[in-house]
Specification:
alpha/beta, globular, binds S-adenosylmethionine
């Protein structure tokens, strides 16, 4: 993926150094308590996928950037993680894949989609959610790193699009970046959680 393949050596240790509990502090109380099926889209190095797998969840980790996906498979080998080379908006590999997910994670991914892709992606993701499933995402705001395909996406547009697809907001919370370099650059995040009913 543009901006990721060529910087993978730098990004792998950076993503791995982030603490799961801190990254997801605003939303972690919403994670399912019972083991189930989790879909982590744009899973990066599998930092989060491995924690969910260790909790007993069956994790499908979608990651289109080959060096990140391969690092994830190497760093976090687990029978509970199924790695797939695929991408939003279409998630072609999940076509005809009848399992639904109790939790879909999109951590730092949505801003890579333009507004047309966001529409297709939201509709596809909704069909993959269990009846009481949750969609949890974090949106990055601020300067776009050089060479990366990324768009400015206000949280309100995501909430409106989710509502059009029958999703209700459970949580919306703004946070500073955990990474000092990004904090200094003015990067902030919005955490969003949605449910179907
Ligand atoms: C900021 S990184 C976050 C990685 C991981 N979720 C984490 O929190 O460490 C964004 C990830 O989204 C992936 N990505 C970019 N465009 C994507 C798309 N269209 N579909 C799925 N993943 C995408 C990138 O390859 C990268 O791994």
């Amino acid at each position: 993926m543009q901006g990721y393949d060529e910087n993978a050596d730098l990004l792998i240790p950076r993503y791995e150094a982030l603490n799961f509990s801190l990254v997801h502090k605003p939303v972690r109380h919403l994670f399912p308590k019972q083991a189930g099926a989790v879909l982590d889209i744009g899973a990066g190095t599998g930092r989060d996928a491995s924690v969910f797998a260790n909790m007993g969840h069956r994790v499908t980790a979608i990651e289109p950037t080959t060096p990140l996906r391969e690092a994830g498979m190497r760093l976090h080998p687990s029978p509970n993680i199924r790695w797939i080379d695929d991408r939003l908006p279409d998630l072609i590999s999940l076509d005809g894949y009848h399992r639904h997910f109790g939790l879909v994670m999109l951590t730092g991914v949505w801003m890579h989609l333009d507004c047309h892709e966001q529409k297709t992606a939201m509709s596809n993701i909704c069909t993959l959610l269990e009846g009481d499933g949750k969609l949890i995402m974090s949106l990055r705001h601020g300067p776009i790193p050089p060479g990366r395909r990324m768009f400015h996406v206000p949280a309100d547009t995501v909430i409106d699009l989710a509502a059009e697809n029958g999703l209700n907001v459970l949580l919306r919370q703004d946070e500073q970046s955990l990474q000092e370099e990004n904090r200094r650059a003015g990067v902030t995040w919005t955490h969003l959680a949605f449910c179907k009913s």
